[in-house]
Write a structure and sequence with these properties.
There is one protein chain. This protein is an alpha+beta fold and 398 residues long. It folds into five domains: 35 residues; 93 residues, Serine Threonine Protein Phosphatase 5, Tetratricopeptide repeat (Alpha Horseshoe), CATH 1.25.40; 62 residues; 55 residues, no CATH class; 87 residues, Chitinase A, domain 3. It is 62% helix and 13% strand. It has 16 helices and ten strands. Strands 5-4-9-8 form a four-stranded antiparallel sheet, sandwiched between helices. A two-stranded antiparallel sheet has the order 1-2. A hairpin with a 2-residue loop joins strand 8 and strand 9. The protein is elongated. The termini are far apart.
């Protein structure tokens, strides 16, 4: 009997110890988990995702943002969830992954029907659908999301054209003009040129919509052209970023460049001449007197020129004129069947231009040369990469 009681006591003690041990392990596990969570908080996760994004590691940033969304944002905090989904959608737009972008944009919209970023969200959804070639769906979304009430139009949003429900603003036109080369941009000062540009811009938009509906953008050739162009743009942007980092212009170096290349900045020998055409069988003396009295047409000629403005090719005559002194005359001379008399109004000898005269030109050329050297080094470094192999012998020789 005593033995049985002793056995029961031993079993009870064993069970108590086992339960205590399990609880201790559970407590330690919870404590460790809490300790880990204290080391890497939700703020850390959010900051880490934003850091990766700032460093240009968009895909890694998206992965960390998804972890933050799934693990650190409370399911009850719909406003916060909607904002994170919107940010994720923007990241995937930048990665050209439009389906994933739409997934998070629509989720954001479901979580918060009226966020502060609603207008931008609407635009991004339409843009993503268009990029996926879903024109009909994009058009439907545009119509359903855009108010056509004139009172809703922003006062500063000067509408200058409409294509269906799509509005083209003055700001949009100005941005398009800003992208033009300077010589084309200057033309837009004229009202007629600006109106012509707007008509062409609107026509392009209409034709683009028609082409999309015909599915032209879905062909392999067009998609290949777009990819090639995208590749070109990205490479150009990469080079631009590298130039920003590596291109530094020291004024003293510009001055040294001028001193080493003075022969490039020379004002050639030149003369200002005045001339009159002499009719055949006329007395040239009276025409020379008229020249001396200030009549005739004036132009500048330079050493090495072959043409006289409004006369034509006259290389030998130019050489003779440049040998004359101020106020001396020449003629009559026959040029292509016509006779002319000339007088030297002014004359300038060959001289090296001062640094101050050509400072802007020198600075531009020096910058251009330095840019070329940096770009050459970028290309050389790329070709010397261990992953690059070129099998054309001629290319390797170069």
């Amino acid at each position: 009997m005593k033995n049985q009681i002793l056995l029961v006591i031993v079993i009870v003690i064993t069970v108590v110890i086992l339960i205590y041990s399990i609880n201790i392990h559970r407590y330690l596990a919870i404590a460790n988990k809490e300790k880990i969570n204290q080391v890497w908080t939700k703020e850390n996760q959010s900051e880490y995702a934003n850091l990766l994004l700032a460093k240009g590691l968009d895909r890694a940033a998206a992965e960390e943002m998804e972890k933050y969304l799934n693990s650190h944002v409370s399911p009850s905090d719909k406003t916060k969830l909607a904002k994170v989904c919107y940010e994720l959608g923007n990241i995937y737009m930048g990665l050209y992954e439009y389906e994933k972008a739409l997934k998070y944009f629509y989720r954001s919209e479901m979580l918060n029907k009226n966020p502060s970023f609603k207008d931008d969200l609407n635009e991004k959804i339409v843009e993503a659908l268009e990029r996926l070639g879903m024109s009909s769906q994009a058009e439907y979304e545009l119509e359903s999301r855009t108010s056509i009430n004139e009172q809703d139009i922003q006062k500063n949003k000067n509408i200058i054209a409409r294509i269906g429900k799509k509005e083209i603003t003055e700001q949009e036109i100005n941005e398009a003009i800003d992208k033009l080369p300077s010589w084309m941009k200057n033309k837009m000062q004229s009202k007629k040129e600006r109106i012509d540009f707007i008509k062409q811009y609107v026509a392009n938009e209409v034709l683009y919509e028609k082409a999309k509906k015909l599915g032209i953008g879905k062909s392999y050739r067009i998609r290949k052209l777009i990819e090639d162009f995208k590749k070109h743009i990205i490479v150009q942007e990469f080079i631009k970023e590298q130039l920003k980092k590596k291109l530094h212009i020291d004024p003293s170096d510009v001055k040294l460049y001028y001193e080493a290349n003075k022969d490039k900045y020379v004002q050639k020998e030149k003369a200002k001449i005045r001339y009159i055409a002499v009719p055949r069988d006329s007395k040239e003396k009276q025409y020379i007197e008229r020249l001396e009295n200030g009549e005739g047409e004036s132009v500048w000629i330079h050493k090495g020129d072959a043409y006289i403005e409004n006369i034509g090719e006259a290389k030998e005559v130019i050489e003779k004129l440049l040998k004359k002194n101020k106020e001396e005359t020449l003629g009559p001379v026959n040029i292509k069947g016509n006779q002319y008399v000339f007088i030297i109004e002014d004359k300038k000898s060959r001289r090296v231009k001062s640094f101050e005269e050509v400072k802007d030109e020198v600075n531009y050329e020096y910058k251009l040369n330095k840019q070329k050297k940096i770009i050459d080094s970028i290309v050389k470094e790329a070709l010397e990469s261990k992953d690059v192999e070129i099998y054309d012998e001629d290319a390797n020789d170069k």
